[in-house]
Amino acid sequence: MEVSAKIETLPQVSTNYAQLKNWALSFVEKYNGLVVTEDQVTEIKKDMAELNKVAREIDDKRKELVKQVSLPILEFELQIKEIISIFKTTREELDTQVQVYIEKEREEKRKAVLAEIERFKTEENTPELTINIKPEWLNKTTKLLHIKGEILEIITAYKKEQELKKLAENAKNDRIEFINNEIQKLAIEFDTPLAFRLFSHLQDPNLSLAEISKNIRLIFENNKKAVQGGMPKEANQLTITLAEKEAPKPEPQPVSQVKTLEEAGIKLLTTKKLTITAEYSTSNSEKVAALYQELKRLCLKCSAVVE
Fold it and tell me: What is the value of pTM for the model shown?
């Protein structure tokens, strides 16, 4: 419907403007250039009060006339605002219903997406994985096929990450096992057990197995020299240095040091020699052999000759 609103008659205000202006100028003329003296203060204050009174009466008249002229406009504004409120209220009611419908659609789509997530997690054997629903997945314009693709990408990336972690962990365990085997082998060769912590720095993944083996042997050799020759006062520290790689490196390998043999967990062995001559019945040969094996296990060196 077309809005019909127009001003029928423009308001006109008649006033004796020229007469009032001339009267005002003549009223204040006597004060132009006036220099107030002490004996004039009382009279001047009365004149000031009169000036305020006249100005206030004129301004009050202005306000009254403006109010009268503005009244039709104010009434028109109230009428139009009332009509606008009718449209606004109805629109808000419709908007509420639309939002309820949209939220219902989003909730239904949320359930569908959750079902797809669980299905993919089951198929890909990743029940522990948490996949958060992206807000844009719930938009009406986002197709379920596109969402499925993104879910699969997330799962694929997760599985790849887990596989890399597993490979890294296996590599670490293999390296530790290799170090342990080398330590045990050289402990037999050098007839000296050494603590694993002396070799823990060799778990560095940048070291090759050949370098690890070389450095383990170096540690055993240094220990043997220390045991056989004693530790001189000026060199009472055992320094274990990683062997340099054959290929050139931009940075030198770090040097791992152990301060003293005691701190390194290396105990200097104190030995004694025991000589035994035994004569026994042949019926006890097996028992004697068993005792000899136990004695051999406890000794660094052990030999026997049966006559």
Answer: 0.46
